[in-house]
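Justification of resources, computational component.

The compute hours requested in this renewal are based largely on the per-chain cost of generating structure records like the one below. Each record pairs the submitted sequence with a full structure-token output. That output is archived, and it is also reused by downstream analysis tasks.
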Amino acid sequence: MEEFNDSIFGNRHLVKEMTMVLIGALALQLTAASQVAGGGAVYASHLMVDQEVTVSSRITGVVDKIHVDRGSTVTKGQPLCTLELAEFDQDVKQAREQMDLSKAELDRALTLSKDGVSSQQDLDTKKAAYGVAVAAWEKAKAIRDYAVIRAPFDGIVTEKQARVGEKVIDQLNVPLFKITAFEPLLARIYVAEKDLLKIRRGAPVEVVPVNFPEARTSGMVEFISPTIDPGSGTFQVIIHVRRDPAHAVLRPGLAVEVRVPAASKP
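The structure output for this chain reads:
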């Protein structure tokens, strides 16, 4: 029995040691960094962008026209789709007519007040009614403007869920498009805390796509995290990647190696 217990204890001890070795190897892999000639280091990463949003409607309505498709390049404010406008246009017209009526009543009250026929209270009431009518007209115009769904920033349409005839409800936040801003193109790496003083903002780096090494490009250290993650013992570094128009493969999600040369370290 003692031999059996010793065997179990020995196996548990061996498993524990092997687990610690595997955890150590994984941590070493996550922190990066194989050495390259000249004392530099290589970090695995993926290209990413700073802005990517799902666009939905701010009001309830029915999709009438779609102006873009997947892959379309858009600029900030460009129409993506338009809801049916008839009802919104009618609301704007009615609000305008009510505003014009309130303005006429106010003008009449002003004239009567000057002649001493109308009271100050009646004049104040007409002024307040006109103010409410102006606000209602402005609101109707704003809602009508929301019926045209626009791109929030320059980018590319990477997803299109909008369909002509589809009813969208503002409270359900129905996704219509996904817009991805292709600039700036970034890469994130995690550097071991022992190299904290070896990375500096503005330092040049080389970015090499793993499967398309001929599309290599340059980059620059844009951000160094002010904190270190105590769990992994690493800190985050953001690289601004130069987009080369000659290499269309440079896009978000692409696997790359970020090569930090020793020359870039102080």
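The first helix runs from residue 2 to 31. The chain is about 30% helix and 30% strand.
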